[in-house]
Please model this.
Amino acid sequence: MFKKILVPVDGSETSWRALEQAKALGEKFDGEVFVVNVIQPYNNAALLAVPLDHATIAQGNTELEKIGDKVLEVAKDKMAGFKNTVNFTIEIGHPSERIIALAKKEKCDSIVLGSRGLSGIAEFFLGSVSSKVSQYATVPVLIVK
Model:
């Protein structure tokens, strides 16, 4: 375990703490770290039937991709000095689904991710990414607060 660690980052404070934890685990166990930013694109279903033209949606998605690139640039800076292999990628889709699929595809043996701190009624209705990943992942999941 901790030979190939997947760590999703979204720019939140908890995702940066998860990245630091993944970096420490990778160094301690001589593991590789795979950093991903998942972009959830706009589409008509996600906007709850608010009609937007395709150009507006495409522009919004392009902006999300730019933000994703910037998040990965910060992640690269935070991983400076890491002596083992580190990979960076952007995925597009539903965050928990893409994280789980990427962990399988890349044959990761663990996932380290931040908790966004949803609780109570909000988590009941929405479900958090960390909850869904921990429930459906086939590898150990470390949730960092």
Summary: The two ends are 21 Å apart (CA to CA). The chain has a mean pLDDT of 84.
